[in-house]
Structure prediction request, 257 residues.
Amino acid sequence: MTAAVIHSYHMALRDLRAFVRQPFYLVATLVQPVIWLLLFGKLFAPLMETTHTTDSYIGFLTPGVVAMTALFASGWSGMVFVVEMEQGTLNRLLVTPVRRGALITGRVIHQALSVTLQSLIILAIALATGARFRGGPLIMLVFLACVALITVAFASLSNALGLLTRSQESVISIAQFLVLPLAFLSATFVPRRVMPGWMDAVAGGNPVNWLVEIGRETLYDGVDWGFVLARAAGLLVVALVCAWLSTLAFRAYQKQV
Prediction:
């Protein structure tokens, strides 16, 4: 167990060093969420606030933007495995003493840390533009932990797709096919009470919506902890299932090389 933890740490550190060497990548990945937050927030704020849906649409929108950022960032994770397979790097790693699980775990840890950093930047931008998070530091920490969970889930799923398809085009296509419907079939842009009945029903079982609803609890003084913990538990189960699928995919890959 100790060796697996140490190896996972070093594999995560390897990816984080590559991430630090490309600061432009961080800036580029923040362009889209900033557009959503500032342009969508300003565009729809008059409509949402005059209908008494929310006092601050920027604050209301922020958890959804964080969730969408986590989805888009983690959805591309499997492409790294495809590139490493094409370059032969993954096969070379398989003949080293590195624990096999660490090859997956390290990448997922790196993905979770980088998305958490992006989430903190988005939250800081939201604060600077008028959002107020009155729930306190504890619910904010829980929200960030849940952001990490959904990142682990979708990064693991993307990794599994990369290992099974061995195609960048397939990973991109499937990721986009999953990400956009999951984002729009949630309360990212509007409250569930104003959604059509069928969309509300789908949102109830959508992990992305669970994360958004946890994030909305950061906006209010009274946090419903039963509500939050139930959805956090659901995200944990989804993350564990996706991690298991990623492990199965990695074993399948090992049998073929």
